[in-house]
Task: inverse folding
């Protein structure tokens, strides 16, 4: 994992260096937002599950350019994890997260407890369709997008956000959240931020911390295969053959591939021709116990 380093420590000129306000309760959050609103300040939100890295920091910096006040939410959302997944072991680095956000002048950290988010008797879910049911992440994590859509809708409302930044790293999630905000007439405008990568191409992810040294050395093959496959498709090689070869290369490198697919970049519908509009290659593959996802434009 790329921890808090120099790339994360620069601060835009004129921003504050003080510790962000850390809020755990909804009434306190609402009171603070009312003060900002009274001054007609625009609010930007960066939803995260913590264990912050330079990818998250890029989202914060983009939000700071688009809003007067930036809230970073830190909440490891239980409803988007299946019982077999890594909720218990998900990395939690709250103190380091606060320090990193202080260095870049974040105003407020919204860190609700699970009981605040889901009080006893909570019984409502946002169940997204469209890009949430195209046979990619949804095929392998059937409850994931309902968990994400529900918590993100709540965060948008709680934080009264004008804009929210999301990473292209989680491309299907970006599409699902954008569609949900549009369909529910939420006033929060979604801003997409390109994927931040290590020098060897591996997309930064909190879950990279799970990789052993050997797996970490193998992991950049994911981005290499995406790049090679995208290049072949752009050069008019048949899509199916390029994907089959890419999948075989990943398997040889030691990955168990959940999917490697070319999709319409807007709708995520399957495509069979490189001329069927803008394309996106999306991959999910497991290295040992760690599941990695990535995507690039063709
Ligand atoms: P997470 O904390 O992993 O749930 O991610 C919170 C936000 O950070 C999501 O919008 C992710 O897409 C985004 N994000 C995670 N990794 C990266 C990355 N390497 N580059 C850009 N955004 C990222």
Result:
């Amino acid at each position: 994992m790329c921890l808090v380093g120099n790339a994360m420590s620069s601060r835009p000129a004129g921003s504050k260096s003080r510790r962000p306000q850390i809020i755990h309760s909804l009434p306190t959050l609402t009171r603070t937002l009312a003060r900002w609103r009274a001054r007609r300040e625009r609010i930007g939100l960066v939803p995260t599950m913590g264990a912050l890295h330079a990818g998250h920091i890029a989202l914060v910096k983009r939000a700071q350019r688009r809003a007067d006040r930036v809230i970073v939410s830190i909440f490891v959302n239980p409803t988007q994890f299946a019982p077999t997944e890594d909720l218990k072991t998900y990395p939690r680095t709250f103190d380091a997260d606060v320090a990193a956000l202080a260095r870049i002048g974040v105003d407020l950290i919204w860190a609700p407890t699970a009981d605040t988010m889901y009080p006893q008797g909570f019984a409502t879910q946002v169940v997204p369709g469209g890009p949430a049911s195209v046979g990619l992440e949804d095929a392998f994590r059937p409850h994931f997008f309902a968990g994400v859509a529900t918590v993100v809708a709540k965060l948008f409302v709680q934080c009264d956000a004008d804009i929210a930044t999301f990473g292209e790293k989680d491309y299907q999630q970006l599409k699902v959240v954008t569609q949900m905000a549009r369909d529910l007439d939420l006033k929060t405008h979604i801003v997409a931020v390109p994927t931040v990568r290590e020098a060897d191409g591996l997309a930064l992810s909190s879950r990279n911390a799970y990789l052993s040294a050997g797996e970490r050395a193998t992991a950049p093959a994911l981005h290499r295969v995406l790049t090679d496959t995208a290049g072949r498709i752009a050069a008019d090689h048949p899509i199916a053959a390029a994907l089959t070869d890419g999948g075989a290369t990943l398997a040889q490198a030691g990955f168990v591939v959940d999917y490697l697919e070319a999709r319409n970049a807007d709708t995520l519908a399957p495509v069979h021709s490189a001329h069927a509009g803008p394309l996106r290659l999306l991959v999910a593959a497991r290295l040992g116990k760690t599941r990695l996802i990535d995507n690039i434009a063709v």
Q: What stands out?
A: DSSP finds ten helices and nine strands in the chain. The beta strands are 21-23, 43-48, 69-74, 108-110, 163-167, 189-193, 256-264, 279-287, 290-297.
